[in-house]
Amino acid sequence: MLHDKWLTVRLAYLRGLKAPSEQQQQLLLLADKLRRTDADSRILAALIKAEAAAERAQRAKAEAARLAARDEEAARILEAITREAAFRERDQELYNAAELLILAGLVDPATRTPAFDRGELLGALLGLANVPAEDPRRREWKRAGDALLAEKTK
């Protein structure tokens, strides 16, 4: 009975197609034939099995496409999350650098503006950037900075 219902629905679907395949046309002809021979019945049974298999393949293909689209969407979401996390991490590093400028007294903590002329501050930072790593002043600066950080993080 279930097979008859599926076949009835499928035949209606095939009749609605603008360009059914040759195999589907043959299935429609044999299904509508009132007097079938044994050979016709065997061919019809084989065509019905083939059509059912084709329908299952079509559903499987649609499901595979749906899963692929879902995976692509998940990949896009993951990429966006990763990109957003990288931006947050970068922003946090910028906030940390600004906090160091505040601790050093180079930026006013209330207004968050430079405590010195911008050109003067930039010039001093350029001077610091040009001091070689092995210069003893840098070791002294590091000791003083580490001490202030330790004091502020207590």
UniProtKB/TrEMBL annotation:
Report the superkingdom from the record: Bacteria
InterPro entries per UniProt: Conjugal_tfr_TraD_a-type
User: Which UniProt keywords are present, listed alphabetically?
Assistant: Coiled coil
Q: Which residues form a coiled coil?
A: 47-74
Among its keywords, does the record have Coiled coil?
Answer: yes
Q: What is this protein called?
A: Conjugative transfer protein TraD
